[in-house]
Amino acid sequence: MAHFLLLLAVLSICVWVYALFEVIGSDPGSVRLLPKPAWTVVVLLLPKLGALLWFALGRPHRDPAVTAPAGPPPAFPEYDHPSRARAATPEEDEEFLRRCRERAEGQRRRAREAQERKRREREARDDGEAAGDSA
């Protein structure tokens, strides 16, 4: 029972602090029923009741989350965007593609080397275990 009462007390304090921060952080023009300073006093002086009143009566209405961008779709797809970075000359494009191929080949080579190293380590470990079993 004591644990339950402690949990309720902690929960009550958390709700009160949350309500206080909400009152302080809200826009003065959007607060309902009372002015913002009055809500601050109500929440401070009546912790439990003031917090509940704030959530029920004073909290500003929240706008629903927008799921899709408003307005018409863009005039062009993203990959055709005028300010998109692209090569100015065919030579620059070939240079970029060459560097990409070199980088990809280097990654493949390093992956093959790591795979071969793991295979050799596994074989050495298996040979060591087999030698230990025969002794």
Provide an overview of this structure:
The structure is a single chain. 67% of the residues lie in helices and 0% in strands. It is mostly helical and 135 residues long. Helix 1 (2-25) runs antiparallel to helix 2 and helix 1 packs across helix 3. The radius of gyration is 33 Å and the shape is flat.
Count of DSSP strands:
0
Largest sheet: none
Distance between the termini: 65 Å
Structural class: mainly alpha
Order of helices and strands: HHHH
- The number of helices is 4
Average pLDDT, rounded to a whole number, is: 85
Would you identify the regions where 5 or more consecutive residues have pLDDT less than 50?
none
The percentage of residues in β strands lies in under 5%
DSSP helix fraction:
55-70%
Rounded Rg? 33 Å
Shape: flat
Question: Short description, anyone?
Answer:
By secondary structure, this protein is mainly α. The protein contains four helices and no strands.
Key features of this structure:
135 residues, mainly alpha, 4 helices, 0% strand
Task: Compile the SSE list and pairings.
Elements: H1 2-25, H2 36-45, H3 47-58, H4 90-134
Helix pairs in contact: 1-2, 1-3, 2-3
